[in-house]
Design brief:
Strand order of the largest sheet: 5-8-9-10-11-12
Oligomer: single chain
Number of strands: 14
Strand content: 25-35%
Distance between the termini: 33 Å
Length: about 200
């Protein structure tokens, strides 16, 4: 659905867009849309297509809280290593897509190397580490496509977590995808040294 902005001379109108019709916006238009619709999780594909992600259900929200909470506790003890971000953060990737991982982290060296003009509303960088938490409304393929996009654009480590199947796909730069069935925990490896995600708190 697209809503036209209301003014003194107009009323807000809603337009239902069939799935076969894409809505394409420039980066400037996307930034303006995101600023005007802060309650929505918006993304933009590399081709400029606007992607509207509806609010999550309570199960996904609870799982994401556990995920970001565990990452935040590690970050507070290792804040000199980089910057951590939650699911409300958008990044402009090198391929021009604007993506919002469910959790992410950027090394201090790469973050500080960004010039001020590239740290606007959406930072022009692909995080070193990304996590996508699949909700019941997400297709597995859409999550896999996003993970490959992150890796192709500079991510070093990525986790695609599928609570419905208790399955995790681990993406690493330059390596094949590793699939884990019902793991109890995940290691941040050399990217996030010492970080271990307790998946029991995510599954339940």
């Amino acid at each position: 659905m697209v809503q036209t902005p209301a003014s003194q001379d107009t009323e807000t109108l809603s337009i239902e867009l069939p799935k076969a019709i894409g809505l394409y916006v420039t980066q400037e238009q996307f930034t303006a849309l995101a600023a005007a619709n802060r309650d929505l999780r918006l993304e933009r594909s590399a081709k400029g297509e606007l992607i509207v992600n509806p609010p999550t259900g309570w199960e996904t929200g609870r799982r994401n809280r556990s995920l970001t909470g565990q990452l935040d506790r590690w970050y507070e003890e290792n804040e000199d290593l980089g910057e951590a971000f939650d699911s409300s953060t958008g990044f402009i990737l090198p391929n021009s897509a604007t993506r919002s991982p469910d959790a992410s982290w950027v090394s201090r060296e790469r973050w500080q190397a960004l010039p001020p003009e590239q740290k606007g509303t959406f930072a022009h960088i692909c995080p070193d580490f990304v996590v996508e938490l699949r909700s019941s409304s997400d297709t597995l393929k859409s999550g896999q496509d996003k993970m490959r996009e992150y890796i192709d654009n500079g991510a070093i480590l990525g986790w695609l977590i599928d609570p419905q199947q208790r399955r995790v796909e681990i993406y690493r730069a330059g390596k094949d995808v590793e699939v884990l069935e019902n793991p109890a925990e995940l290691s941040g490896e050399a990217v996030l040294p010492g970080f271990v995600l307790n998946l029991r708190r995510v599954w339940d």
